[in-house]
Each structure stands twice: as C-alpha cells, then as structure tokens.
Amino acid sequence: MSAAAAAPASPAAKTARLPGWWPLAALTLLAAVLRLSTLGLQSFWYDEAYTPLHVLHPSLSSTLSAVSHTENSPPLWYLVAWVFDRLFGDGAVSLRMPSALAGIALVPVAWGIGGELAGRRAAVATAALVSVSPLFVWYSQEARVYELYALTAAVAMLCFLRALARPARGRMAAFALAGALALLTHYFAVFLLAGMALWLLAVPRTRRAALPALASIALVGAALVPLLLAQGGRNTSWIGAWALSSRLEAIPQYFLTGESGSPLGHAVELLVALPLLAACALGLFRMLERPPSRRTPEEARYRTGAAIAAWLAACGVLIPLVLALAGEDYLAPRNVLAAMVPVAALIAVLGTWPRAGAAGAALLALGAAGLLAVTVDVDLSPRLQRGDWSGLAASLPRGAAARRAVSTELLGSAPLQYYLGGLRRLAPHERASVREVVAAGEANPGAPAARGRRSRPLAPPGFVPAGETRVHGLLAVRFLAPAPRVLTEEQLRRAGLPGATWVLTPGDGRTAR
Description:
Blueprint: H1 2-6, H2 11-16, H3 22-36, H4 46-55, H5 60-70, H6 76-88, H7 92-118, H8 120-132, H9 134-140, H10 146-165, H11 169-183, H12 189-202, H13 204-231, H14 237-240, H15 244-257, H16 265-288, H17 297-325, H18 340-351, H19 357-380, H20 389-395, E1 405-407, H21 414-419, E2 424-425, E3 431-442, E4 464-471, E5 474-488, H22 489-495, E6 501-512
Parallel strand pairs: 1-2
Antiparallel strand pairs: 1-6, 3-5, 3-6, 4-5
Helix pairs in contact: 3-7, 3-8, 5-13, 6-7, 7-8, 7-9, 7-10, 7-17, 7-18, 8-18, 8-19, 9-19, 10-11, 10-12, 11-13, 12-13, 12-17, 16-18, 16-19, 17-18, 18-19
C-alpha cells in the first residue's frame, strides 16, 4: 500500500486534474501574444493615419462631427479611439490597442459560439481557428473599426444562440444590447442580425419572446439612418473600381492568408485550405451517411449547429452581394469580416463531427497550423506588411516642416502628414514656388483602381529626375529644377500616380494663390 501511494501519478491522471478551461486560457494567451507582441511593428497606412489627423480631435463633439463629415462607419469605434487618444496619445500602439483588445476578446466569444452550436470540441476548434487566423490578427493590429465590428457581431451571435436555446427575458435583452452595439460599430452588421432575426421568427417557441429585442435593434438602426445618409458612402469609390468577381474571389483568400497574403500565391492558399476543406468534407460525409432516423441526439445538435452557422455566414455575404448586383455596391472583403466568425464556426462544427474522430481533429489542427504559419510569416516578411511610411518619411530631404506642402488625394497624403509633422496639403488651385519635389507612394500599387495605369510618376514641367528611394514596398522619386518654379495642384495631380503624395520643398519660402 505504501509503495502504491508513493508511486508517481500517471500522465493520464495529471491531465485529468487540469481545469476544464485550460484550452481556452492557452488559446487566449496565444491570441494575445500574436496581437500584442508586434502591435507597433508596422507603420500606419492611409486610413489609419487619416484617423488621428482628421477624425480625432480634443473635443468629443468635434470628433463626432468629423465622423459624420469624413467617415463612413457608425460612431462606436471612434468613441473608443477618442478615449485612448486622450489617455495615451495618438501613437500606433495606443490607437491600435482597442482593436488588439477586441481581437483577444474575440477568442473566448468564439469559444462560446462553438460551444453553443455543438459542444466542447467545436468550442476548442472555433477558438483555435480565430486565435491564429491571419485575417483576424491583421485587423487586430489596425487602428480602424473592423476588429471591434467582428467582436460586437460575434457577441450578438453568441447572445442569439443562447436566446435560441432558452428564450428567457434576460437572454433576449442581452441579444438586443449586443445587436445594438454591433450596429453602432459597422453598418454591415445588419446583414448578420437580419439572419438571426429571421431564424428567431421562424422558430415558434422564440418568435413571441424575440419581438421586443428585435424592435429595440430596429430602433437603433433607424436612429443611424440620418448619419448613414450624411456620410453618403464617402471614400468608397475604390470598391466600384474593383471588379466584383475579384472581390468575391478575395473573400476566401482573405480568410486563408489575410488581407496581405496575396503575394504568397495560390499554392500557399491551397496548402492552408486543403486540410480545412478535408475536415469539412469528412464531417459532411459522416452526416450524410446515416439517415435522420438513426442520428444520435449529439449528431442532431451538430446538424442544427452547422445549419445555423452556414445560414449566418450566407446572410453576411450573400445579402450584400444581392445589393451589389442591384446597384448598391459596398461589398468588400473587409466589410464582411464579421461573417468569417460563423465561417470559422461552421468549419469547426463539421471538423469535430461526432464520428469524424481523430482524423477530423488532425485535419483541423493541420489547418490551424497553416493559418498560424501565415500569421508568423507576416510578422517576419516586410513584403506582407503595411508599407513602411515611417521609414520612407525618414528618407526624404530634411528641412523645416513649414517648407513642405502636399498635393494628393485626401487619404493618400495621410501617412506622410502623420510622420512628417507640420506637412500640409496644397489646396486646389493653389500655386507653390518650389525647387524640389518628391512623389511618394506604393512601389507596386495593389489597389484595383491603379491596375493598368503607369507605374512611375511623370516629371513636373521644368523638373528632371534626381534619384529614387525604395523602402519596403514604397517608392519615393525625387525631381529637381535648376531654379524655383511655380507649380499648381492640378499639374501635380496629372503627373502623379493614383494615391501618390507630392512633397514640395519651396525654393523661396512662398506660396501664392
């Protein structure tokens, strides 16, 4: 007896003593490491730099006014960003922190979604896919609305699933609040909420209980209509310039390799996709091989969970697609980011189907490993990162900030204005006397609107090329004149590239209208 008592515990016994929440804690910690460790690694890009320059102001009322006049999203994220700006400044880490925290919080919410849909195995798989996804990590490190949009929509989905399971008043109230927050974050949340509403109304036992919650969400949506009309789809012309077929193709590409993963090529996309598709195929095969009369209660739960996830994912993508075909085209991969949560949940449910066994789990683990490899590659490869506007700004000719001016599209000038303090935009029809100009922008513009156009800026009248600088995907071409020359904003626009920024160094310190 003493020998038995002294014998070390078996590995199985040690594993059994681990708390049941340890996989969630491990995945949340992994998500935090992936998002926080490199949060300030990349420079601000166009939209990010525009936010502290033109949207966030010391006054909250001025910030809300700027949201109405310069942005195309509801105000919730900007309120959060304004608080962080006031408390911690407008640096990259500070303004990206709300997105990073939202991305970390998304993991336990994804766990809850998987658990409500099909149980613990699906919870682990859903949280794992979300924690390592290059798409969700990318937007967790961007000072824009998208990751908070994914989080609030996912919380609404979790509350919907719990209300569907037991339509108590408190659960319906939680769904109403979460749905309202999702709408206040991004207009595209309405498509996912529409799918949830239709499902609740289609189930007799939830129909009556859901009406007050759905009415509350509808009231919040109605209150946002004046803001939506005031914003008028501002700065969305790039969407229409991008072929709809290419945008649809980009949605699965974004899910597999993130927004910046296109340079990896289709071979890498296929390597990441194959195990995930195989896991889904295995689950579907196991589901279809047994007739409904022979399915176990667990299999019936899995089937319902898969149907709900597939329905919500379809609503999140197909409704805006129908609107795009009807002429209201705002369908862009980033705008359907929240729909990727039910997509991940669907993959998890199918891959953990009760009779998929170890093969399904192994395929899901292999797919998650592929997603993680892409995420790490983005951190290690500048070609997959945002353009290094900070490095490019440091390479430009030095001098007093007041000696520089900018002529460009509204968003195009934002990164250099952010990193070159005091740089101002040259107003339309304004003339400047300059001796040196630098055209700065993307070395290989990936924006669809830029395809098919020339790849280098033209020399402005009276100027000759004087060298160029390349910094991690960005290009600055320098032009000099033998004596100061007067240039107009219109001349510079004609000579530049789409989205290019002209940095002007006056020859005599004067500008004239």
